[in-house]
Structures are given as structure tokens and as C-alpha cells.
Write a structure and sequence with these properties.
Elements lengths: L2 H9 L2 H18 L5 H22 L6 E3 L8 H18 L8 H11 L4 H19 L4 E3 L6 H21 L11 H27 L2
Parallel strand pairs: 1-2
Helix pairs in contact: 2-6, 2-8, 3-4, 3-6, 3-7, 7-8
Length: 209
């Protein structure tokens, strides 16, 4: 089997690699004391923004891309919703919700200003993976509207993040800090499940076609 055949075979399993890369980089972030609830919520936000923009730029070049929002190819509604979420995530979860913990605020600031390289590498992988899938004309289900399975996962991540912040992080501030690896593992675990849910929804939608 040639190299190109192996690559083509693995492309069909891109969701598995997507999850493994996310898990590996997040684990490395935990081990290096650079993971917070905001880190994970903000990653889900960026993941959706990247998907939205790349799909809009490339979907006409990919005959195997299925536009679920067949009535419109505009994406301004989706971008507007993401803008509202951005303000909410940055102001509330990035700073206000952890205003009594300077250590977490500093870590969140590094994430916002792209000083966290584990976070940056995660985003770079998401970006290049999505572009490559379109260029290789892989079957993809895409959405441009404000309400879709990816947005549902983002909503759930905000709810889960809020519950973790107020019922764990704020009640046990010495345990749930970026430097406490076991506390970070507890924080990361629900988001790994959400990542799996996101891929399951995408896979189911594609299989229904």
C-alpha cells in the first residue's frame, strides 16, 4: 500500500485523529499547569469559528460538502452569534467568574492573547485539518446558521463550564488551580466527553445522508 493510499485511508478516520490530537495537547497543557475551565470553553468557541469561516471559503470547491442550511449560504447570523458568545466568554468566564483568583486570571489572559502554545497548537491543527479536508474533497456536513449541532455542543460546554466554575473551582480554589494536575483532570474530563458528543453528532448527520 502506497503512502497516498495510507493517507486517503486515514482521512476517512479524521474524527478519530482530531480527538486524539485534542486529548494529547490538552493532556500536555494539564501537565504543564496551563489548563483552566476558560481554556476549554474558549477552544470550543474557536473551533466553531474556524469551522464556520473555512466552510464558507471552501464549500463551493468541495462537491462532497453538504450544506444543511440549504436556504442560505450566508454566515453573518452565525458570526454574530459567535461575537455575542465571545464577549460573554471573555468578560464573564475569563475574568468576572474567577476575579478572586489572580493565578487563573493570568492563565486566561495568556490564552486570550495567544501566549499558551498548547492552546495555539490545538487551533492550528483544527484550522489546517478543516482546510485539508475540503481540499481533498472529503464528505463534510456543513452549517452556516446560528443553530446547529456544533452550536448545541458550545451551549452545553458553557453550561458545563459554569457548573464546574461555581460548584468546584470557587468552592475548592486550592484544588482546582492550573498547577494542580488532578484538579485539572477533573475539569478536562467533561469536556472530553463533549468533544466525543460533537463528533458523534457530526458522524450521525453524515450517516443519515
Amino acid at each position: 500500500m502506497g503512502l497516498q493510499a495510507i493517507i486517503d485511508q486515514q482521512l476517512k478516520k479524521y474524527q478519530k485523529w482530531d480527538f486524539l490530537v485534542f486529548m494529547l495537547l490538552t493532556l500536555l497543557s494539564v501537565l504543564n499547569g496551563q489548563t483552566t475551565v476558560f481554556y476549554l470553553m474558549y477552544f470550543f468557541w474557536w473551533n466553531e469559528v474556524i469551522r464556520l469561516i473555512v466552510d464558507r471559503l471552501y464549500f463551493k470547491k468541495n462537491p462532497n460538502a453538504i450544506n444543511e442550511d440549504w436556504q442560505s449560504t450566508g454566515f453573518m447570523g452565525g458570526l454574530f452569534s459567535m461575537g455575542v458568545y465571545w464577549v460573554f466568554l471573555i468578560v464573564f468566564f475569563g475574568f468576572i467568574a474567577v476575579s478572586d483568583n489572580r493565578e487563573i486570571i493570568l492563565t486566561n489572559m495568556e490564552i486570550v492573547f495567544f501566549q499558551n502554545w498548547f492552546f495555539n497548537l490545538n487551533l492550528i491543527f483544527v484550522l489546517f485539518e478543516r482546510i485539508y479536508l475540503h481540499q481533498k474533497q472529503q464528505p463534510l456536513t456543513i452549517y452556516f446558521g446560528a443553530f446547529n449541532p456544533n452550536m448545541i455542543v458550545l451551549h452545553v460546554s458553557i453550561i458545563v463550564g459554569g457548573l464546574i466554575l461555581f460548584f468546584l473551582v470557587k468552592r475548592f480554589p486550592e484544588t482546582f488551580t492550573p498547577e494542580n494536575q488532578w484538579g485539572s483532570v477533573v475539569i478536562v474530563f467533561p469536556f472530553l466527553l463533549l468533544k466525543m458528543l460533537n463528533q458523534k453528532l457530526s458522524s450521525d448527520n453524515h450517516n443519515l445522508k
